[in-house]
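Quick one, tokens below. Sequence please?
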């Protein structure tokens, strides 16, 4: 075996054992103080997607994209507000969307933001 093969064998095992972090995240506008929140069952992936879309000029909300392009990434803050732990008593394929929606509502209340209407889109 070559050294490259030996180095690659642990990667599939690490991927299989990977459990994404669930949680609530926010995009903060430093210039206006505006805060937008959302939740995700894979919060790091959502933040990476959001950052990529904004950097590439592909974000669907044109107002947010315009501000990002004009002010630059340093004028914004992307952060994880809170995480939700997996419940070992629940099945592995349990849908945590109701719990994540409730967690986001608590953070929106804490930040004095209006509650999101039902089925309204967040930063997704």
């Amino acid at each position: 075996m070559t050294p490259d093969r030996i180095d690659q064998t642990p990667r599939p095992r690490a991927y299989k054992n990977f459990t994404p972090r669930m949680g609530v995240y926010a995009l903060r506008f430093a210039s206006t103080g505006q805060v937008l929140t959302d939740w995700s069952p894979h919060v790091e992936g959502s933040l990476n997607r959001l950052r990529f879309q904004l950097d590439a000029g592909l974000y669907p909300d044109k107002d947010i994209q315009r501000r990002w392009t004009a002010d630059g990434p340093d004028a914004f803050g992307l952060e994880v507000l809170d995480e939700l732990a997996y419940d070992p008593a629940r099945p592995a394929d349990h849908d945590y969307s109701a719990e994540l929606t409730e967690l986001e509502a608590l953070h929106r209340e804490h930040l004095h933001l209006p509650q999101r209407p039902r089925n309204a889109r967040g930063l997704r």
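Helices lie at 3-8, 10-16, 43-56, 62-71, 97-110. The chain has five helices and three strands.
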